[in-house]
Amino acid sequence: MRRILLPLLVVVAVPLYVWDVYQVVRTGSSGTTAVIPALSGTSRTSFGGAAPGARAVHFVASTRSPFEPYASVVVAPRPAQPTTSTSAGASQPATPPPLTVTGIMWNAQNPVAMISLPDGSSTMAKPGQTVGSGILVKKVEQQRILVVYGGKEFWISK
Prior knowledge:
Helices cover 16% and strands 22% of the residues. By secondary structure, it is an alpha+beta fold. The longest helix is centred in the N-terminal third of the chain and has 26 residues, at 2-27. A hairpin with a 6-residue loop joins strand 1 and strand 2. It is elongated, with a radius of gyration of 29 Å. It has two domains: 1-64, no CATH class; 100-157, SH3 type barrels. The strands form two sheets. A four-stranded antiparallel beta sheet has the order 4-5-6-7, with no helix packed on it. A three-stranded antiparallel beta sheet has the order 1-2-3, with no helix packed on it.
């Protein structure tokens, strides 16, 4: 297998490398902007002309390093949603959140729970993460999770 694989890789890689060098030499090596003429609309006999609707490819030099993170974006806080109050003095019983635990990937250092939300979507949640509308996953155990919903704690089993 190795006797076949190495020559095959060489046969494929060398022409690709030569083609790349040819493109750089042909289009200019300024490094700031390069246009591939075969796609820019000019007719070339070696390429058979440009494809209909093809556009020029431009490579523009940037001063930003691809390894640096993007600038932080300040997000405005959401306005508070109006709350509806029930009759005075009537307290509602605590009801568990409308979600289902569909799976738990257990790892003592980094447990993750797969949760089905009432809108039909599923999400992965780690301890300390908020899912749905105000449901905080507080703890993930091997067979159940602890969530905080409406100021109350609830255990939800698989």
